[in-house]
Amino acid sequence: MSASQSAVRSRAEAVKASRTFDWLICFTLFFVVLGGYHIHYMLTGGDWDFWTDWKDRRLWVTVAPIVAITFPAAVQAMLWWRYRLPFGAVLCILGLLLGEWINRYLNFWGWTYFPVNFVFPSNLMPGAIVLDVILMLSNSMVLTAVLGGLSFGLLFYPGNWPIIAPLHVPVEYNGMMMTLADLQGYHYVRTGTPEYIRMVEKGTLRTFGKDVAPVSAFFSGFMSILIYFIWHFFGQWFNKTDFVKSA
Amino acid sequence: MKLLKDKVAKLSFVALLATVTASMFYTPTAAAHGEKSQAAFMRMRTIHWFDLNWSKEEVPVNDTMTISGKFFVFSGWPETVDKPEISFLNIGIPGPVFIRAGSWIGGQLVPRSVSLELGETYDFKVLLKARRPGDWHVHTMLNVKGGGPIIGPGKWVTVTGSMKDFKNPITTLTGETIDLETYNLDNTYFWHAFWYALGLAWMGYWMKKPMFVPRSIAVESGKADSLISSTDRKVAMGFAAGTIAIVAMSMSTTNEKFPVTTPLQAGLLRGIKSIEMPVTSVAVKVEDATYRVPGRAMQMTLTITNNGDSAVRLGEFNTAGVRFLDSNVAQDETGYPDDLLAEEGLTVSDNSPLAPGQSRTVQVTASDAAWEVYRLADLIYDPDSRFAGLLFFYDEAGKRQLITIDAPLIPTFI
């Protein structure tokens, strides 16, 4: 077979080879994203995602979507502009959640015995689905950043509320009131995470009374717009074929 | 010969792989907490723990034990460590093998951070409920913001039974009694599985079509728009609308199910009550202090003045949780950890009763392997080569007085 000849001899063979290639790329991409995104998210959102007594209505709501929209934006840039595949954000979140669940179950529970109901990860899927759909329907990075980024921030808290609300039921404990999540943090001893490290309920949003979460979510959505732009460009830049050509 | 060499090389490679793999799967239990690695001056000149008591040495799962005692927040707190203005009474155990059922300083529950004053002595108590069987080293511990964890003495405690029997019942303010160990677990699994399945469905919809090669060719040839059909758009809109509707509905039903929720509680507890320590009648001046490296002994020259009305004798020197006793004056009756107790480790050149109004200069030697074992000898490598500790004097009636000392330490190597 010379270099000018095709490696396949029929259309059926070509389709088969193409699908095999699809699965190989998908499998590899999934685990590469899982690894990179997981490390990134643990380094930037770490404790807010680890513990229920960090999942508050101010900082967790603000920080988690901002640091989470990074990889979805970059992977979207690659999959959409090169292949018109609108599942970059969902692929990232599927990878991240799988990695996180493996980590929480095997490490946090299996090795160090923290109950899973104290260390489960945040749910980022609703925002990811909407982000992918907006990119697909709009075919616009700007609209995806503005509408998708905002939605990513806004959907985060309500998307998690059904999971964390039961842990915000109050309890009286030795003469003090706390939530069940606070009590988990107090009961299940973390030698290296003293109470003062906890970054919750800090800030100056006091004029909004008890309705702080929507304000935090809007701010998070606004910041997610900016972060989306930056990481989308990262994705486009890394997605160039210049590197291959020069090699 | 070459064949033999190749075989040896192959076998060596296999052996190397086997060794690396075996080492990856070898995960022995981490029993200690690095207490010996903490800088000696941190342990000697920050928090002085004393009168410690571990109520039990063996506890069945679900049963409780307490650690109680006192700690003195040293007046000569080192400049290189932030002051304990934001601190947290913790417990040094390998993960939640116990749960912390309660902790008190000065009688006040301290689930949050506290502000402590230099020069004050506080009593404390930590109530632990056994959760996981095993032999665990249970330490007192105070975390200081800007200073890190300041670990105190530790004692081995055995937890017996089975972790699957552990229960953690809590009654909420809404009147429901739950087991915090498993509460909300099914709900968490359900929602995560549900959203994960929805994400997989979205991915599956696109993955069932040809993906990379044909789509790349289409995009490169300017036919990108043909890759998204009207059905694709309808499906996508369905996913987005469904997602938003599910989020809204699940939030609404959750609010109906849990009408009473409160934000996480946080804040600093100030005004923690300290112990009114009795006025001391003994004055001590450290004339000099040396640490003799080969002999693992610290020698101090002290001038002791008794201003009280009863003769006194020096019974104990306590530093970094290590207790050096003169057994003729004081004995431990609390079951203090053996490795931290030098029952005859304190020698005083003249420890006869010091009569009221008298003053005497004595040579005091605190010697024990603990200096080396607990790496207190490393003090000579610290940035601020000073030592500190507590001296306990006893009068004729057995009444105890606590005096703190703080002075430079000169090492001797010969």
TrEMBL record, chain A:
The keyword Transit peptide does not apply. GO terms for molecular function: monooxygenase activity. Signal peptide: none annotated. The keyword Transmembrane helix applies. Keywords: Membrane, Monooxygenase, Oxidoreductase, Transmembrane, Transmembrane helix. The chain crosses the membrane at residues 21-39, 59-80, 87-106, 126-157, 212-234. NCBIfam families: AmoA_BACT, CH4_NH3mon_ox_A. This is Methane monooxygenase/ammonia monooxygenase subunit A. It comes from Methylovulum psychrotolerans.
From TrEMBL, chain B:
It comes from Methylovulum psychrotolerans. This is Methane monooxygenase/ammonia monooxygenase subunit B. Residues 1-32 form the signal peptide. Keywords: Monooxygenase, Oxidoreductase, Signal. One of its GO terms (molecular function) is monooxygenase activity. InterPro entries: NH3_CH4_mOase_B, NH3_CH4_mOase_suB_C, NH3_CH4_mOase_suB_hlx_hairpin, NH3_CH4_mOase_suB_N. It comes from the Bacteria.
